[in-house]
Amino acid sequence: EPRSPCCCLAWTLVIGAMNCLFFLLNLLLMFVIFTVVLLPTIVVVYFGFQCHSQVLHSSARYCKSILDDSSSSALIILGFVIMSPLLVVAMALYCSLARRLQLLGCFQPYSLALYKGGRCCWARSCKPQLKAWV
Fold this sequence. Notes:
Strand content: under 5%
Radius of gyration: 24 Å
Number of helices: 4
Distance between the termini: 36 Å
Membrane topology: Multi-pass membrane protein
Number of domains: 1
Largest sheet: none
GO cellular component, one term: plasma membrane
Keywords: Membrane, Transmembrane, Transmembrane helix
GO molecular function: PDZ domain binding
Shape: elongated
Helix content: 55-70%
Structural class: mainly alpha
Subcellular location: Membrane
Number of strands: 0
Order of helices and strands: HHHH
């Protein structure tokens, strides 16, 4: 049966807040995964830019004794080269984790706010849906 207008508005706000919470959870998970997987690239590019004389030219001991301009340029290039495969790995890891945790299935449609008797994602039975290609 349809809900009253005030109840419909309240449930719309609850569902909207719940969807925003799941969106922020997905965003946080993606940020953590991408940061951990891309950490080697971040470190290599950072040291390359830090020790290059035309960029930051740090006075650190390792910049003076180990890294000159050509090796700093090589670090910058290496960092950007290894970024592409690591981006693919990070996205695959996020997608497999989101699929395993069923994070994208927890977003609720706003039609639940219109009628009584709607069920939330954790209340419905988690039966796998039939797919057309199976």
